Amino acid sequence: FVDFARWMTESSDNAAGVKVPSTDGQLDFTRMLSKRLPWPSVEVDELGCMHAVIPGPAGAPAIAMLAHVDTSPQFTGEGVEPIVHRQWDGQPISLPNGNLTLDPAEMPGLQRVAALKDTIITASGDTLLGADDKSGVALLFAVARRLLRLSPEERGATVELVFNTDEEIGLISASKLEFVSDVIAGYTFDGEEFAQVDTETWHAEGCELHVQGVSVHPGYAKGNLVHAAALAAHFVTEVHRGAENDTAIGVPASTA
Length: 256
Description:
By secondary structure, this protein is an alpha+beta fold. The chain is built from six helices and eleven strands. Strand 1 (41-44) and strand 2 form a beta hairpin. It is globular and about 85 Å long.
């Protein structure tokens, strides 16, 4: 993981959809991954996604395991220096850069980890760590190493490992992805909780909305003037009100 985290694979909102992957660093990374292990079958497709197929017994079904290689463009992923804290005792961690302190008392996620007294890895304070989703990439590499030590008969199924690009800026490659194998099910390794499996998630989509009001002279504005900010606020309120009555698979919808 530490080695993977140091690679600059930040995606770019500005290049989203213009080119895939949106940054060259992602393509460099997936090409490196394709040479990292003695894959029985491997390719990097036109989207910059790496596909490695580890065959199971003849006639066995195929499943896919996926992790995305890009990191969020909301904060820099360049010059990442991971810091390994072995047998962390749960005390606040002062990071060397950025004048930041990670305090479990203020961070519920750290509270859960503190009780384990295990090794954790942080960034140095002035970059993302990139655990979303380099941790998933590292995990799948551990799975791959174990599978490669087994015979096809012992694997039980054919496994296609996919390391996809541009997830952080709208699932761009995932929406166009074509598996190499005849996959019957797929599992994405990109989560937060320990030992948690999500069978469904909300799909987050974005849009850019331009609101134009109606400008009227104050002398006869009553009933005619439309304030753009008030109109935008009304629109957002109606979106949320409508979502309260929507359901997906019997689960109430939510908006953010």
